[in-house]
Amino acid sequence: MTPPQRRRRTPLEPSTPEPAPAAGTEGEPAVPNPERLYSLTGTAAGAERASIDLVTLVVAAEDPPPTLTPEQVSLLRLCTAPLSVAEISAYLSLPFSVVTILLTELMAADLVQARAPIVRQIVPDRSLLEAVMHGLQKL
Question: Which DSSP string corresponds to 54-84?
Answer without folding.
Answer: TT-EEEE-SPPPTTS-HHHHHHHHHTTS-EE
